[in-house]
Amino acid sequence: MAVSGDLTFQRRAGRALESSRTFVKLLFRNRLTGAAFVVVTLLVVVALLAPVLAPYPDDGRGVVNPSERFQKPSSEHIFGTDDMGRDILSRVIFGTRISLSISLVTIVAAMLIAIPLGVIAGYFGGFIDEILMRITDVFLSFPPLLIAIVVASFLGPSLENAMIAIVIAWWPWYSRVIRAQVMAAKERPYVSAARCIGTSDWKIMFSHILPNTIAPVIIQASMDLGCVILTAASLSFIGLGAQPPQPEWGLIVSSARTYILDAWWYSVFPGLAILVTVLSFNLIGDGLREVLDPRTRVR
Amino acid sequence: MNILEIRNLSVKARTILGTASLLSIQVLDLGAGEILGIVGESGSGKSILALTIMGLLPTNVRATSGSVTYRGQDLLRSSARGLSARIRGKEITMIFQDPMAALNPVFTVRQLLEEVIKEHHPDYDSKRVRGAALEMLQLVKLGDPEVTLQKYPHELSGGMRQRVLIAMALSSGAKLLVSDEATRALDVTIQAGILKLLEDLRNKLDLSTVFISSNIALAATVCERIGVLYAGELIESGPAREVIADSRHPYTRSFLASLPVPERKGQPLPIIAGRSPDPLNRPRGCSFAGRCPIVEDRCRAEKPPMLQVSDGHDVLCHKGGTHQ
Amino acid sequence: MTRDSGTTGALSGDTLLRVEGLKKYFPVRGGFWQRSVKWVRAVDSVTFNINRGEVLGLVGESGCGKTTLAQMIVGIYPPTSGRIELDGIDLGKSLQSRNLKTKRKVQIVFQDPFWSLNPRKMVRDIVGEPLVVHGVALGSTVVRKVGDLLEMVGIDRARLFSYPHEFSGGERQRVAIARALALNPSLLLLDEPTSSIDTLSQAEILNLLIEVRNRFSLSYVLISHDLSVVQYLSDRIAVMYLGKIVEIGDTRRVFRARLHPYTEALMAAVPMIHASGEVSDVKPLEGHVPSAINPPPGCRFEARCYKRQDVCAVEEPPLRAIEDPEHLVACHFTNV
Prior knowledge:
The structure holds 3 protein chains of 3 kinds. By secondary structure, chain A is mostly helical. Helices cover 75% and strands 0% of the residues of chain A. Chain A contains 14 helices and no strands. The two termini of chain A are 12 Å apart. Chain C is α/β, with parallel strands linked by helices. Chain C contains 10 helices and 12 strands. Chains in contact: A-B, A-C, B-C. Chain A binds chain B through residues 1-10, 12-13, 16, 22, 26, and chain B through 13, 15-17, 20, 22, 41-48, 51, 56, 58, 96-98, 101, 180-181, 184, 214, 278-280.
């Protein structure tokens, strides 16, 4: 509708988002997003300070303690102990390190692969675009978890291989998103102006177009952080990811499976850790979308 | 008799940055069978006026006081929801800069028109509906109406789409048409055709039009009366020829003087420095005081009154009516 | 074709730009194999000259090819055929084939002041980019030069570190002009430079453009659908219809004589308020622009023309001089 002129103040309200303080204020206006941010910040602190915070740091690192097997949650072992007598709270705390680094490393790696390819495909179009997009099509035609399982079983079970598998399953999604954005952005007059000036294609792509097209990828990535933790946990659960005695949450849940009726605490607490973390990342992603999207829609 | 009367209207918006005053009109009348021009720059409140009349304001924007009276009924206080629904979109309709936004692309012109006609005349049989649709297209002077009826909106040119929209408006029994920059995207030759059509419909059907445009020359050619908006305020209104040849508000005068007309070729155009005030932070006195060439102390201190220059020609200025 | 008319436009003076027989045909793909089957003749054999320091206005309805013509001159689109010469040097087909030195001579200002500046860059970097790319300035001299450029277009140099969204439409357009001027071009293409901004800002931009032109004896190609802007700024005016120039000559003369019926119709449709306060009436032009895919064999304006006769449908009128050697019209019936 042609109300743009009179509603410039609303556009300005949008522009105010440029200043980071308003950005954070808006993000926190949604209480859930704010809460999720607090949770994620706590998780990061927990991960960094794991040896200090964990009541039994050695248990977290995997030292077995056969005399204290299957202890119920108590003041001594708040989350109880596992089949090897290790303190589950300490294991979960150390697991935070693994989960957070898996998600961060894989997502960043996937973006590093996807963004240049997506930008190049979108900017040059034609033959290059055809080839790159057919490659992504192949990946996109399978569920990412399935691809990850196939790749992980091919590479052999280990945490590092699981991460590689996740990266391989994930990057085509980002390539697609960024390519579509670039194709729209390259038609804008500021790109034509840069070409007329004589700016090189590379500089146009990465200095003019990329900063204007990356927002949707960031939103997607922040939502995927949780998803990746889930995938890594799934891979570990079926034995293709982290290997014992690593305190990976999915792996803990997997080993707890046998004792689920006798020692409920063994599976519930690491499960809750996965739930809370994934939920928080998703909420942050939603919050980011809410705040970033209207601005990208503003002319 | 006036078909539309606006009194002491004030429209405000609530944003995260505070309350913005978007529109303030003390008096504005539109007679039946009259074309009223509303001119102003972007951000002057032109579109807000259109949306207020249509009841289409965004959720955070509200008419906080005053009245918009259509044939004796206050549209703002139409607590009877039925009233508003009966009038708006039927007796009062709007055409936009982008006609595609209002034309459903999956229907042909025939389907679009016949639907409106059937709703307005439930007693018509299908043959009569068909005849009425054809008649409407002839009324808006669409060449080859039989062929046009079969077309989809995307197959029509911009000017033809506007004509179809006007035909739809007329089919629903429109008495008042709000045109918000409806010819802006059109070529001048096509634009002139739409202007002629509006004049023609006024003469034939007594259709009243609020013609909103940022182009004062355009408004002047088609409108009997013109209202000038600046920073959300109606600062001058009166007969078109009079507002242009004998404008009294310093803004209107500066605006007219800055038009690149043939007589000024080769001379620099006079300009007014500054920007129009922030809607979030309107000045205490006259909103034009910061840029006005004949500003006085009282202009900054108090709001100017609406002064009558001559019958039907009002100006919102402390020094209204006086030339410097 | 207009071969017999020789050089179209300015015969005397210092020729800066020479456009000869320029054509741009866009393929319309169709059929099962997406082979091109038809061609849209967006620009069809256009020939004209521009002198140094001269402003040529290009007018016509949307789809007449004026924007395509401008984009070919800048090099955004390669022409299908024809020649573009600047200072006697062939500009080559497209931007890729032009070297930096040629690129800097032709710059463009776009219509939309909201998307013509990168929203994520500071004004310093936007206006400074051409200086850096061409190695004209480095480091702190960039800031100083950008400041000078901003001041020249009437923007406070204190706003060097502002982002585009902090400027109004008119100010953004001035930033765009500053960027175009950074490389000292000899030809500036102005693609609807004032149609997205308010009347008051428009007056400022027009004043600025005249001032800059006089100062650097720049040449402009001004594209606008607003005839009042074109007549105000242009020395000469070219009226285009369906990919062809139908009338070209001195602005005042063309406005007065309106020899081509299309020029006449175009000008009659423009609402104008004269300095006296008199308002001119408007006259619509009936009919629509025919498709550029299969333009009529004779005069392209034939279907809408009130002067048309049998010959118009068969024979295309050449662009020829009427009365004055620099005033060319493509019409069989130019009875003044």
